[in-house]
Every structure is written in structure tokens, then in C-alpha cells.
């Protein structure tokens, strides 16, 4: 069932660093899309690879929950993220809003996960958008999160998928 008629399945080739408002990650996972979808949407599995609080996720448009992490003053991050499920296309796309739980902090981002079958595995696309290129703290947050998505988060997701049968 498609819950968002306008979602863009892919992002333009070669645009990874050109747009300072966005982080784009393209990762192949040697697991079928249904297994990856489970890791993205089942609360018990999310809790294994995302921030504390991810276990409160529900695949329901409008559902809200809070995740916590270490505060990062250099990027103006309070340590808590309010998350809202914006849209999903079952088994293919999940779009979330992430906003700093402190209303005085400017972070207000959209995270979109898109899955495509590739052979016996899955091509996972992540688009994290909404960074303000005129705000030095937002650019620091982008730099930190770009590295975090590519290393820590996707590695943790991969470890969760390896354990999942």
C-alpha cells in the first residue's frame, strides 16, 4: 500500500556531496528486501541498531517517539530526537521526520530509506535532508552524521541483519 504518492525512489547519480542540505547514502546489503524492511520497521530489531528509544517505533503514519544519544554541543544537538513517521510504501520506502527535542535547536530533518531488490540482495538508499548550509552548527552536524550513517549505523544494521534469520 502506498502511503505517499510523491516519493522519489532514487536520487541523482553523482550528487552525493554537491547538495549541502542533504546526505545521500547508497549501500548494497547481501540480504533480501523483506529482511532489510523488517530491520527498518520492527521495533525489537530497530532497538539493536538505532539509538535508544527506537523500540518505540510503530509503522503508522503520524506515530511519534523519541530517541536519545550523546549531546554534541559543537553541532548544537541536545541528545534527544523527536521522530515522526511521515510516510511509507510497505516493503519499499520509509520516511521519517527527525527534530531536535529541544525546540531552541534548529535541527528539523527528513530521513528517507528506500529499498530496491538487486540480485539476491538489497540496494538501500538513505536520503537525510534539511540541513541549513548557512548554519555552521548544521554543517558540523551534517559532517558528523554523514560519517556516522556510512560507518557506525550501516555497520550496526548489517550486524543485525546477519543475526536475523
Question: Can you put this structure into words, describing what you see?
Answer:
The structure is a single chain. By secondary structure, the chain is of the alpha+beta class. Helices cover 27% and strands 31% of the residues. It has three helices and six strands, in the order E-H-H-E-E-E-E-E-H. It has helices at 33-41, 43-49, 136-163; strands at 22-29, 64-68, 80-89, 93-100, 108-118, 121-129. A six-stranded antiparallel sheet has the order 1-6-5-4-3-2, covered by helices on one side. A hairpin with a 2-residue loop joins strand 5 and strand 6. Mean pLDDT is 89; it is low at 1-16.
The proportion of strand residues reads 25-35%
Q: Give me the side-by-side strand order of the main sheet.
A: 1-6-5-4-3-2
SSE arrangement, N to C: EHHEEEEEH
Low-confidence stretches: 1-16
The average pLDDT score comes to 89
Assign an overall shape: globular
Q: How many H/I helices?
A: 3
Count of strand segments: 6
Percent range of helical residues:
25-40%
Structural class: alpha+beta
Radius of gyration from CA coordinates: 15 Å
Main sheet makeup: 6 strands, antiparallel
Question: Would you kindly provide a brief summary of this structure?
Answer:
The chain has three helices and six strands; from the N terminus they run E-H-H-E-E-E-E-E-H. By secondary structure, the protein is of the alpha+beta class. The protein has a six-stranded antiparallel β-sheet with strand order 1-6-5-4-3-2, with helices on one face.
